[in-house]
Structures are given as C-alpha cells and as structure tokens.
Prior knowledge:
This protein is of the alpha/beta class. The chain has two domains: 27-220, P-loop containing nucleotide triphosphate hydrolases (Rossmann fold); 229-329, Helicase, Ruva Protein, domain 3, CATH 1.10.8.80. 47% of the residues lie in helices and 16% in strands. The protein has helices spanning 5-18, 21-30, 37-49, 63-73, 89-93, 127-139, 174-177, 191-202, 216-228, 233-247, 267-283, 291-302, 310-314, 319-329; strands at 52-56, 78-82, 94-99, 104-109, 116-120, 141-144, 147-150, 156-161, 180-185, 261-263, 307-308. The strands form four sheets. It has a five-stranded parallel beta sheet with strand order 2-5-8-1-9. Strands 3-4 form a two-stranded antiparallel sheet. A two-stranded antiparallel ribbon has the order 6-7. It is globular, with a radius of gyration of 21 Å.
Amino acid sequence: MENTSSDIRQLNEKIHQASAFVDLLNMELGKVIVGQRYMVERLLIGLLAQGHVLLEGVPGLAKTLSIKSLSSAINAKFSRIQFTPDLLPADVVGTMIYNQQKNEFVVRKGPIFANFILADEINRAPAKVQSALLEAMQERQITIGDTTFKLDDPFLVLATQNPIEQEGTYTLPEAQVDRFMLKVVIGYPTKEEERHIIRQNLNPEASTPIRAVIQPGDIMEARKLVREVYMDEKIEKYIIDIVFATRNPEEYKLQKLKPLISYGGSPRASINLALAAKAYAFMKRRGYVIPEDVRSICFDVMRHRVGLTYEAEAENVTSENILSEILNAVEVP
C-alpha cells in the first residue's frame, strides 16, 4: 500500500492527539522520580511496543520505584519477585495445592499473574526459574498442571540485574537475553538531581502519591496506533543494514570488526528495532519514523544482541563501541 502525503498528514494528526497521554504520564512520574528521564522513556517504549525491558545498574538508582510508579499511573496490577538462588519455578508461576474441603487439587496462581512484573536481580535465580519466566514472556501464557492460563494484558516484564556482583549469580542464557526488547544501562544522577533526591527523601510529607492518569485499556489502544506509524522503505533498509553489519561487517568496509564479533543480531533484533523506532516516534508525537528515531534507540535494542569474542574482551572493546562504529559506517537515508 502506497501512502500518499495526505494519508501521512492525517495519521500524523491522529497520533499527535492520541499520544498526548505520554506527557501526562511523564508529569505524574516526575512527582516521585528525580532525573532518570532516559530510563522512564525506555520503560514507556517497552510498554507501547509490547516488549520486555532489562535494566542494568547498581543498587539505589530508583529502578523499582520507577516501575512501581509507572504501574500506579496506569492503574495496573504490579507484582515484584525477588530472585534468589533457592527460588523455584512454582514460586513464580504458581502451583497445584490440595484442598481438603473439596477433596481436590486447585490452582494457586503465582505473582506472575499481574500487568507489570518486576523481576528483581534476575541473574540470581537458577536456569529452571529463568525458563519458567521465559515461557511467560514469550507465549504470554502459563501452564500449571494441565491447565493453561492466558496472562493479563498489558503484560510487561521488567528485569533488573546488578553489574558489579558476580558472586552467586547465574549468567542469563543468550536465548533469554534476546527475549528482552531493550537492555537499558542506567547511570548515576547529576549533583543537582542528587541534592533534590536527598531533600525529597528527608521530607516525605512534601511528596505526593501517584494518581492513575490513564487506564490499561488506553495502553492497548495506543499499541494499535504505534503499529500504524508510517515507516518508509528507506528506513526499513537502514534498519536491515545496521543489523546485517553486526553479522557481516566486512560488507560495510568494517573488516576490523570481524574478529571482535562472535555473533550478530537475530531477525528479532530487526523486528524490535523497527517496533521501538515506531514507539519512539509515537512518543515524540509523530506519525512517521525518521532515521534519528532508529539511531536513538539502537544501543538499547542491540547492545545485548552483539556477542563479543575473547579478542574483543582482551582489548576492552564493548558492544557499544562496535555499534558506534557501525552507526558511523552505515549510510543514513
């Protein structure tokens, strides 16, 4: 279907009006969260593009607070699961228990039955628990005994991992890391923001509780519109070039990257890059995607999808370094 300029103009106006709630959400979250605009923006992209988010940062950077506040602002059900080495799959998804009065087994649902799941320190749990979470993330359903339950919509897993402690942690399998649409690395606040954080925490009376400014149904409607955002063929080609450059860097005159990359992005990387770019355009209240949208979310979508060789690790080359080289080399439409 060829989009005429009048179609795009109409779509642009429609999305400009429909995306007004993004500002409302940002204002509401700003009451509680100081700084961290980047993280909040990425959480909203995950929410609008129906993708899960992996947050990496040291403790105390308001990861839990942000996710909890976002679920309150959307009037959604929030559930926090603290991952520990002795956690069992049944602790996450639920189990069958025997009811003596009824003389039968009944299902007791686990904390996964919510709209927002915070999987705190996901790399502390063993593989069995991670695979139980994986089914929920991918299939959006849970099987307990011989019954399959559909999970509520919107359903979003936000997992956190601590990059500094490796003691007693289990590395996330590549297949599971690939299930996360975005991997967001969170930094420290600025001096001014930190001063504000201190004042806010020393004077709890001054803080106002988060109000529900929109409903889960509004998010479902917004998701349909996000998919309608217009993406030109040139932008599609740009996305494909970026992903293919991680697989075959020599085709883009990047021979020096060949020994540093053990594997490149999967087709899921291309899909997520396109979807996240559409969500980003929607948040910027535009009905079409521009190359800048792709570039701005490229690191979050791709950083966990580029495998590094031992040579890269020996030379202290990160996936971000590789992606910077690729973005500089690939021709922008």
